[in-house]
Design brief:
This protein is mainly α. Helix content is 62%, strand content 4%.
């Protein structure tokens, strides 16, 4: 058994995810969401959507994938979806998850395996996590009248490109997103280019 002090040190490190602010404002636009809140919201949303769509999947695996998906941001920070350096973000995140995997207080032997799967896998669970991971910040942008989009001068074309893969995976979700993109353009929350 691992020493309780070592376990608590690991748990304190996990808590660092609460310090990573994202670019999405929580509903109502009061403040920025942090990555720990997002990970919880993602897990709950995936679980609910899986049941709403009556998807045949492993719920335990789904929740694990959702909970670890942003763990690497403890060291790497959050990379804005529309940032040009986004392609390299997973390198620093992978290094962090590897460090966390090998922390003596970590009791999850397959932590890195789950993180790698959510990053590169194509299972039903992984696809759902990826779709909902895009849906939630989008939903928050709509709920805050496009505050983050407006502040970062996000263009309609960027949002369409970032969400295009959803059309194949979950057409109903994509149709909702597409309608809201048009709504956001009409209201001036997204630049119409």
């Amino acid at each position: 058994m691992t020493d309780i002090n070592t376990i608590c040190d690991y748990l304190r490190e996990l808590d660092e995810l609460k310090l990573v602010n994202r670019r999405s404002y929580i509903a109502g636009g009061v403040r920025l969401e942090n990555s720990a809140e997002h990970s919880w919201h993602l897990a709950m949303a995936c679980w609910s959507i899986a049941r709403s769509f009556d998807l045949k999947l492993d719920e335990g695996k789904l929740l694990k994938l959702a909970l670890v998906h942003d763990l690497g941001e403890i060291d790497a920070g959050d990379t804005f979806l529309y940032a040009p350096q986004r392609a390299d973000a997973n390198k620093a995140e992978r290094a962090c998850v590897t460090r966390m995997q090998h922390h003596q207080g970590n009791g999850v032997e397959d932590l890195l395996t789950y993180w790698e799967e959510q990053e590169t896998g194509d299972s039903v669970e992984t696809k759902l996590v990826k779709v909902v991971d895009r849906l939630l910040p989008f939903l928050l942008n709509v709920a805050s009248e496009g505050r983050a989009w407006r502040e970062n001068r996000v263009k309609k074309s960027q949002v369409l490109n970032a969400h295009a893969f959803i059309e194949k995976e979950f057409p109903v979700i994509y149709q909702w997103i597409h309608a809201k993109i048009e709504y956001a353009v009409i209201h001036g929350w997204l630049e119409d280019v």
